[in-house]
Amino acid sequence: MLPEEYKKPTDHMSNFTQVQKQDAPKWILETVPEGVRLEVLSLVKAVKLVGSPEARNKAAEELRGKVGEIAEGELNEEALLKAGLYAVAAELVAREKEDKLEKLLGAGS
């Protein structure tokens, strides 16, 4: 569940909490296994290094394949976070927006 430091009560609905937008990515990235984050960053760096449409397409398909593998397995919170990161990474790589992904993952170029 969401750690208490990332919650704050809303003024008009004190029974509900609201995630502070600026803190959400930090919490999410602390929850995603470091190996997954590094795997995605490595793939992004390779795509940028090669710079070809073929490499970009292959990387996006590889990431989408990982989402498919996760969907076929046992689903839990960690699996969902991994699948989400892989899916967003696949879309950003396909759209040539790796810089946005690197910034999120803490490796801005």
Q: Can you walk me through this structure?
A:
By secondary structure, the protein is mainly alpha-helical. The protein is built from 5 helices and 2 strands, in the order E-E-H-H-H-H-H.
Write out the strand line-up for the largest beta sheet, numbering strands in chain order.
1-2
Proportion of β residues?
5-15%
What is the arithmetic mean of pLDDT? 80
Helix-strand makeup class? mainly alpha
What is the CA-based Rg, rounded? 16 Å
Please outline what is shown here.
The protein has 109 residues and is mainly alpha-helical. It has 5 helices and 2 strands.
Note the topology:
Layout: E1 7-9, E2 17-19, H1 24-31, H2 34-50, H3 53-72, H4 77-94, H5 98-105
Key features?
109 residues, mainly alpha, two-stranded antiparallel sheet, 2 strands
